[in-house]
Amino acid sequence: MRTVRDFGATGDGVVDDTEAIRHAIGQSANELVFPPGDYRITESIDVPLQEHGRAGITGSHSTAKIVMAGSGPAFRIIGSHEGTADPGSFDESVWRKERFTLVSGIEIEGAHPEADGIEVNGAMQTTFEAVLLRNLRHGIHLVNRARNVTVNHCHIYDNSGVGIYLDHVNLHQMIISASHISYCKRSGVKIFNGQVRNFQVTGNDIEYNYDQEAGEDASPSAEIWIETTGENATIREGTICGNTIQSRYSPGGANIYFKGGLPGDNTKAGMFAITGNLIGSQETNVRLESCQSITLTGNMIYSGHKRNLHIKDSRGIIASANNFDHNPGYLPKELATGIRIENSTDCILSACTVRDAYAGDHTVETPARLEREGLIEIRDCERTAVNGCQILDAAQDGIYVAGGRAVTLAGNTILDSRQQPMMRHAIAWHGAGSANVVQSNTTNAGTAGAMALANEAGVTQGNNILAQ
């Protein structure tokens, strides 16, 4: 088997091997095999599949490293597929020359502030397996168009930009699995505009993706950031399942952040299942803005410096069987808990445990200002329900509602178990509303009474039980 050294590459980390690697591609060396060594390049290596045919890039079982000492991507994989993933939409030449580019067993390290790892443009079935991408700007950068991308068993670490960046890309079918994506300063996985369908993030460790050196001047980041604020941008049909998603506080940061259209347009981002994840330790753990049809189920969510869950300007959000609690290994250091749902419709919070900090406030230093009227806050919502939840040790009100129409609070247990109770009311309802229901809840008396329901709130109540 011929390697890039057969075409003049040295792999000594000093000589510029750019032209030797280009020469290998030009001589139809479709599999770029890099023997052990450090291969310094200063310009992007284009891999135009339609011109040169099927290609693979391998680093001899992780013993080879590419050092990108110029700006732009170390490798640019370029395809020509304009169709969908439907077999009938393919030009036959795509199957002959372009399918299934495999990048495996190689490290790419940046030695330039604008060096990227690998850019994919117009390719079909690009597969990353056992790749290490570090000290770059963006690790994997998808642009323009892509289909059926997989990222498996990779390490994407300590990059100044985004670990995996879907940048205005039209993409269907992508799977990110069994990978470490960490310490990337502008987010771990980010979808920014474009049109994306069928996107799965499963079984990864995604953590500490923020700029810790910048402090309060850091740009907002997230472990997973999904945004569709651009014209014609839509992102639907995806899963975020079975991951560990952790970080530390950064201003404006979130572990998972969905930002759909402008306020009033919640049709552009949604149809996602967020299931079975461990999510913790950011300004906001899960932040859902202007999106629709997202199910948040069976997650452990903890240590939000500002909110554990914030739903705003959204529709059809269901949060069920989640545990909003604290890491007992860090006691007595706790962060107060909080859920806010505002200006949203058709949302349900059910069968969740929501436990506040025992002290009723943050007991660790944090620059995030805690602003809340209740452990669960519902503001200006319609057709929204909190059912069958355990709401424990609130410091203000257990559930605080402002306004609302057809808001239902039913079958919840709202108790303060502290030796010195702090909960003000189990349920407090302020402002004008209509067709609202408070029924079959079990509560403590609260320091100011079990319930405070404004007459103009339009609340019908019954069968509530006061625990002694």
Tell me the CATH topology of the domain at 1-184.
Pectate Lyase C-like
Mean of pLDDT? 94
Termini separation comes to 80 Å
Q: How much β-strand is present in the residues?
A: over 45%
Structural class, from helix and strand content? mainly beta
Just give the CATH class of the domain at 1-184. Answer: Mainly Beta
Main sheet record = 44 strands, parallel
Q: Which keywords apply here?
A:
468 residues; mainly beta; 44-stranded parallel β-sheet; 3 helices; 4% helix; elongated
How does this structure look, described?
Among the domains are: 184 residues, Single-stranded right-handed beta-helix, Pectin lyase-like (Pectate Lyase C-like, 3 Solenoid); 96 residues, no CATH class. It is elongated, with a radius of gyration of 26 Å. It contains three helices and 44 strands. It has a 44-stranded parallel beta sheet that branches. Helices cover 4% and strands 50% of the residues. The model has no long low-confidence stretch (mean pLDDT 94). With 468 residues, it is mostly beta strands. The longest helix has 9 residues.
Question: What's the short version?
Answer:
This protein is mostly beta strands and 468 residues long.
Secondary-structure blueprint:
Elements lengths: L11 E5 L1 H9 L4 E3 L3 E5 L3 E4 H4 L3 E3 L5 E5 L3 E7 L13 H6 L4 E3 L1 E5 L4 E10 L2 E3 L2 E3 L5 E13 L2 E3 L6 E14 L2 E3 L6 E4 L2 E8 L2 E3 L14 E6 L6 E8 L2 E3 L7 E6 L9 E7 L2 E12 L2 E6 L2 E13 L2 E6 L2 E3 L13 E4 L5 E3 L2 E3 L18 E6 L2 E6 L2 E3 L4 E6 L2 E6 L2 E3 L11 E4 L5 E4 L2 E2 L7 E3 L5 E4 L2 E2 L2
